[in-house]
Structure formats: structure tokens, C-alpha cells
Amino acid sequence: MGEATQIGCACGQTHLEVEGKPVASVEYCCNSCREAARRMQGLEGAPRTLTDHGTTPFVMYRKDRVRFLAGASNLRGSACRPRPPACG
């Protein structure tokens, strides 16, 4: 499959491991993603989220290649508005 990479949040409470290469690495340009990124980077101590072009970087891995090592209960989904039916 490939080499495993460990990733953690800045606070040190949440850690995960991804295996192999991502399925895709993209930059989202939609207003909803941009607004979510602005909110996240506005949190105290948060790193910059938006790129110089105002896009939101996003990396996708297959679910079977992602493993939470600690802190999965700290995570939650976030959306600025309901997703359209076409988004699933």
C-alpha cells in the first residue's frame, strides 16, 4: 500500500495516520468552503487556512487508509450551509 504518515493537531490531542498517497489533492473555490476556512483560521492559535488565491486546500484519502490514533471524539463536521442534494 505505501508508507504511513502521522498527522496531529496543534493542541496535541488528536492524532491520525494516513497510508499511501492521497486519492486527490485539490483547492476548493466555493463560497461555502471559503467561509468555513475564514471561520477556522479566525480561531485563537489557528494556522492560516486560505491560500494566497483565497482557496481552501483539501486532501482526500480512502477511508480504509485513515486510522485515528487518538482524539477522534474531538472532531466534528462543519458546514456553513446545508449541502445540496447533488453533493451527497
Structural summary, described in words:
The strands form two sheets. This protein has a three-stranded antiparallel β-sheet with strand order 1-2-5, with no helix packed on it. A two-stranded antiparallel sheet has the order 3-4. It is built from one helix and five strands; from the N terminus they run E-E-E-H-E-E. The chain has 88 residues and is an alpha+beta fold. The chain has one helix at 31-41; strands spanning 4-8, 15-19, 24-28, 56-60, 66-70. It has one domain. The longest helix has 11 residues, at 31-41. Helix content is 12%, strand content 28%. The protein is globular, with a radius of gyration of 14 Å. A hairpin with a 6-residue loop joins strand 1 and strand 2.
List the main descriptive attributes of the protein structure presented here:
88 residues; alpha+beta; three-stranded antiparallel beta sheet; two-stranded antiparallel ribbon; 5 strands; globular
Count of DSSP strands: 5
> Could you spell the SSE succession in H and E letters?
EEEHEE
Number of helices: 1
Strands ordered across the widest β-sheet: 1-2-5
**Low-confidence spans:** none
Oligomer: single chain
Calculate Rg over CA atoms: 14 Å
Alpha carbon gap, first and last residue: 28 Å
Secondary-structure content class? alpha+beta
Task: Report strand %.
Answer: 25-35%
Mean pLDDT: 86
Total count of domains: 1
Helix content: 10-25%
Overall form: globular
Main sheet summary: 3 strands, antiparallel
In summary, what is this structure?
With 88 residues, the chain is an alpha+beta fold. The protein is built from 1 helix and 5 strands; from the N terminus they run βββαββ.
